[in-house]
Amino acid sequence: MKLVFDFGGVLFQWQPAELLKRVLPERAHDDHSAAHWVGEVFQSYGGDWGDFDKGLLSADEVVERLVRRTGLGQAEAQAIVDAVPGLLLPIEPTVALLERLRASGVPLYYLSNMPAPYADHLERTHPFVGWFAAGIFSGRVQQSKPDPAIFALAAERFGAAPEELVFLDDHPPNIDAARAAGWRALHFTDAERAERELRELGWSGAE
């Protein structure tokens, strides 16, 4: 068994509505308005933000696209893009689980939709990113989940047959895509449930 972790929502907090409430308080001033602006800015991770995730747009270019498309001011769009790294904070119970998995000798990998500037920040800031044997950030390969191509690329890079890989992700379409690629996949909701499901798959937790 080789484990593949998503990052946002699994190892790092990702709460876009809270981000926009903080950065755009005059626009995202309650749950309803925040949900509206989440849709406008992130477009369900398609559109402009999806291209940023894939490395097809730079940070400056996605700011310009947001200004043209949404009516946000330049400073507002820039503030959103600049705020993301500081709000990608570790989810400590998952980091603790990762440490136990590492200590027990389970091979660890990652597959994350992440623009390259944010990937650079995470690598610089959080030593546990170095615990993984290998990984793929979408912004560095110009592909993103749930595209089948990124799962094929990941299996190749990780030197694994699809059936060896167990994927933990919080986004159901990515779970479906992983399973379609022949991987096993667990829908991540919290570290306690993930640990229970990994034990059901055969992880003993013993070093």
Please give a quick description of this structure.
The chain is 53% helix and 11% strand.
What does this structure look like?
About 55% of the residues lie in helices and about 10% in strands. The chain is α/β, with parallel strands linked by helices and about 210 residues long. The protein folds into two domains: about 1-15 and about 90-200, HAD superfamily/HAD-like (Rossmann fold, 3-Layer(aba) Sandwich), CATH 3.40.50; about 15-85. The protein has a five-stranded parallel sheet, sandwiched between helices. Strand 4 (about 165-170), helix 10 (about 170-180) and strand 5 (about 185) form a beta-alpha-beta unit. Helix 3 (about 45-55) packs antiparallel against helix 4. It starts with a strand and ends in a 7-residue tail after the last helix. The mean pLDDT is about 95.
- The count of β-strands is 5
Give the CA-CA distance, first to last residue.
15 Å
Taking pLDDT < 50 over at least 5 consecutive residues as the criterion, the unreliable ranges are none
CATH topology of the largest domain: Rossmann fold
- Broad CATH class of the largest domain: Alpha Beta
What would CATH call the homologous superfamily of the largest domain?
HAD superfamily/HAD-like
Class of secondary structure makeup: alpha/beta
Mean pLDDT: 95
CATH architecture of the largest domain: 3-Layer(aba) Sandwich
Question: What about the largest sheet?
Answer: 5 strands, parallel
The portion of residues assigned to helices is 40-55%
Given the C-alpha coordinates, what overall shape results? Answer: globular
Over all CA atoms, what is the radius of gyration? 17 Å
Count of folded domains: 2
Output the number of helix runs: 11
Query: Could you tell me the strand content as a percent range?
Result: 5-15%
Please state how the strands of the largest beta sheet are arranged side by side: 3-2-1-4-5
Write the element-wise H/E pattern from the N-terminal end onward.
EHHHHHHEHEHHEHEH
